[in-house]
Each structure stands twice: as C-alpha cells, then as structure tokens.
Amino acid sequence: AQKVTQAQTEISVVEKEDVTLDCVYETRDTTYYLFWYKQPPSGELVFLIRRNSFDEQNEISGRYSWNFQKSTSSFNFTITASQVVDSAVYFCAPMGYGQNFVFGPGTRLSVLP
Amino acid sequence: EAQVTQNPRYLITVTGKKLTVTCSQNMNHEYMSWYRQDPGLGLRQIYYSMNVEVTDKGDVPEGYKVSRKEKRNFPLILESPSPNQTSLYFCASSLSGRQAFFGQGTRLTVV
C-alpha cells in the first residue's frame, strides 16, 4: 500500500516569493511513478508533472521545478516567483501496481498580491 | 477533444434514493477510477477498473458499486445514499503509467 504525507496543510506567500511544497511518500513497489496535480478554485484537477522511480534527474519547467530524492522518498515542488494565479491546492500522488493513484491530503497555497 | 465526462455536475437527493453518476472517456484508456474528495482528506479512491469487466475496491468502497461493461464507461452507483456520502466525486481515466485525466467533478448532496 502506498501512503503520502504533505506536511504543509496551508501556505501563504506574497507574490514573487519562492515557495516549496513538500511531499514524502511510502511505497513497497520497486517501480512506481510520482505525480503532482493542481486544483485551482474552479475545482478541476490539472496535471503538472510525472516522474518515474528510476529517473532521479530533477526537472525545471518555467517557474516550476521538482526535486526527486528516492533515498528519502521525497518529491518536492518549487514555484519560483509565485503569482496570484498559482493559488490552488496541490496534490502529490504516487502510482504503483495496478495503476492506482494515492493522493496526499493536499497543500493549499495562497499567493497574496 | 480528449476528455472525461461526468454527469450530472450537481445533484441533490434524499437518503435512500438510488442514483447513478455516469463517467465516459473518449481516449480508449484501460484504467478508470472513482474518487471522492472531502475537506482535509484529499482524494480517496472508491473503486478502480483495469479493463472491461475487471474492477476492484479502493480505499473507501462501502456504499458504492461500479460496473465496467464497456471500455469507455464506468458508472458509479449509490444503491441507498446516506448523508455521509455527501461529497465531491471525480472520475479519472489513464493509460498504464501515464497521467490520469479527470472529469469535471460531481457535487453530490444527500439530505
């Protein structure tokens, strides 16, 4: 069974600040995938990134970057120069055997102008 | 356009009145699943299906039924809804190892 911990329930930052969202997961699968999703106030779930467990190369995409460390089972997400439109709930979700996503409880990010 | 379509988007019903929430995807995905989202609990999986006629329980299956008779459809059935099933429901579909595509959500209120 998989488990996800997103220790930060809510974070508030001022626009243009950098913010990192933490994710720690547990899995017994040797091969798995890790995902981040965003849920803006409108309610839909938006896919952000997918990583597989044997590729620890960190990734940057525009203002977003991800730090995957298999040794500590962490998959953290950083937004650089945050904007008000980044305000949303962010979910970390590992996926293993059976293609089952296990979602963390989410971190609510509020970016204040 | 690739999409997952849920209906209805909003539903208010009374305790005990059977209801079905439909979910359809047009991407030929093998995997489909249902989640419920409650404040502070994130998304919890109700049921999932790995292909036609193959379904299995997720973390919170009590009070729900599903069927997968066709690849594109995965309806969620509440035989006797109760107020504790008031929630926001999402259907999702995916290919093996790929990101899930989610429907727009169904907000269900059981009174």
Mind explaining what this structure looks like?
The complex is a heterodimer of chains A (113) and B (111). Chain A is built from no helices and eleven strands. Chain A is globular, with a radius of gyration of 14 Å. In chain A, strand 5 and strand 6 form a beta hairpin. Chain A has strands at residues 3-5, 10-14, 19-21, 24-26, 33-39, 46-52, 59-61, 64-69, 74-79, 88-95, 107-112. By secondary structure, chain A is an all-beta fold. The termini of chain A are far apart. Chain A has a five-stranded mixed β-sheet, with no helix packed on it. A four-stranded antiparallel β-sheet of chain A has the order 3-9-8-7, with no helix packed on it. In chain A, strands 1-4 form a two-stranded antiparallel sheet. Chain B is an all-beta fold and 111 residues long. Chain B contains no helices and eleven strands. Chain B has strands at 4-7, 10-13, 19-25, 31-38, 42-51, 54-57, 65-66, 76-78, 87-94, 101-102, 106-110. The radius of gyration of chain B is 13 Å and the shape is globular. Chains A and B meet through strand 6 of A and strand 4, strand 5, strand 9 and strand 10 of B.
Distinctive features:
heterodimer, A: about 110 residues, mainly beta, 11 strands, globular, B: about 110 residues, 7-stranded mixed sheet, 4-stranded antiparallel sheet, about 0% helix, about 50% strand
Quick overview of this protein structure:
With about 110 residues, chain A is an all-beta fold. Helix content of chain A is about 0%, strand content about 50%. The mean pLDDT of chain A is about 90.
Layout of strands and helices, then pairs:
The complex is a heterodimer of chains A (113) and B (111).
Chain A (H helix, E strand, L loop, with lengths): L2 E3 L4 E5 L4 E3 L2 E3 L6 E7 L6 E7 L6 E3 L2 E6 L4 E6 L8 E8 L11 E6 L1
Parallel strand pairs in A: 2-11
Antiparallel strand pairs in A: 1-4, 3-9, 5-6, 5-10, 7-8, 8-9, 10-11
Chain B lengths: L3 E4 L2 E4 L5 E7 L5 E8 L3 E10 L2 E4 L7 E2 L9 E3 L8 E8 L6 E2 L3 E5 L1
